[in-house]
Amino acid sequence: MLDDIRVLEISAPDTMMAGRILADLGADVIVVEPPAGSPGRRLEPFLADIPGLERSLTWHALNRNKRAITLDINSPDGREIIGSLAAKFDIVLETKENALPDSIDLGSRVIRCTVAPFAKTGPKSDYAASDFIVMASSGAPSMTGDPDRPPLFFAVPQAMMEAGSEAAIAVLSALAARDRDGAGQAVEVSARLAAMMLSFGQPIVLGSGNREIPRAAVRNTIAGVDIPSAWECADGFVLITIAFGPAFGPMTQRLVKWAADEGHVPVRLAETNWVLTPGDPAGGASPDDLRTTVNGLRALCLTKKKTEVAEAARRLGILASAIFDMRDVAESPQYRGRGLWTPVEIAPGKTIDAPARFAQFSNYSIETRRPAPKLSEHTATILGDELGLSASEIQALFVHGII
């Protein structure tokens, strides 16, 4: 798909996802790391929880299908080499903190994409930033967690992923424009703005003069009774929805009957009209009945595994499903049946299953052509092939710490 496109990625955590997407689409992506290795090599988790430059699973996940060189782009020799290399590429990916020197002339057709924590101008443009700070500034955590507690943050560096994905989209748009008019572009991506897409409804609501959206609770309150949406079971958690009315009431009716058949609520509750909202003057369940049912369902779930609850949901036609953890995702028969995993060698003799693709196309297949590059794995080959450097010149660069 992009097999005629070449990408020079000045490696940083925020560029890795963009480079990976472009590489998956067939582009020749060359990663440029400092001699000590890219910061992405130091991101958790590590293989067997042992840190090392070749053991970061994050690095392996986001750098497949790329080649890599080491180069000190801040040294005089490094600046000369990176300038000569960049002129041979269609796209340069960089971050604000790890950008190419301004003295380098990229030419009129190169697309230069710079990812920064915040917009180039504005009150936060010079903020020191971590993923935590960027996500807090995005507003997304304000929508997570219980309303009576502090917001919840993401367990993975989410802003980094969002920024990389948006950078890939921006670069693809710039490529389409270049096909039309022949000119390159300077593209800027704000990680904060990218992360704000997770909470895009919030600024729209506020901008329209509406009340601020509160954090969604993990429980609902009906007739004065707290009803959880996530329920603990024997091996994790499941989602179970209790709802009423002509559409959802019959499902709740079947749910209560299941709890009664298992001996966790009185049989009379299975015969109660659960189409009506508890407390409705027309009759049906009372708030006390609902409270008894919630307690019974809580006890029922504790006796069941996630797979048992999911099977019951299919068999009985109730609103329930398992909450997957990473092991569930990895072992899912559905995902495996769809070919969403691929074996990747991450160390000599050590192969793991990794997600195979970010999208599936009718006319193009994303394949794992090579694992994530080892440190400086392709340096000598690329400097020789691209710039014509001799073996002695490459050796001298290494001796002086340039590569």
The CATH H-level superfamily of the largest domain is Crotonobetainyl-coa:carnitine coa-transferase, domain 1
Give me the CATH architecture of the largest domain, please: 3-Layer(aba) Sandwich
Q: List SSEs in N-to-C order.
A: EHEHEHEEHHEHHEEEEHHHHEHHEEHH
Roughly what is the average pLDDT, rounded to an integer? 91
The name of the CATH topology of the largest domain is: Rossmann fold
Overall radius of gyration: 27 Å
Q: Kindly give the count of domains.
A: 2
Number of helices: 15
- Percent of residues in beta strands? 15-25%
Which percent bin holds the helix content?
A: 25-40%
Task: Indicate the overall shape.
Answer: elongated
Secondary structural class? alpha/beta
The strands making up the biggest β-sheet line up spatially as 3-2-1-4-5-6
* Count of individual beta strands: 13
Cα(first) to Cα(last) distance is 32 Å
- Which residues sit in consecutive blocks of at least 5 with pLDDT less than 50? none
The description of the largest β-sheet is: 6 strands, parallel
At the first level of CATH, the class of the largest domain is Alpha Beta
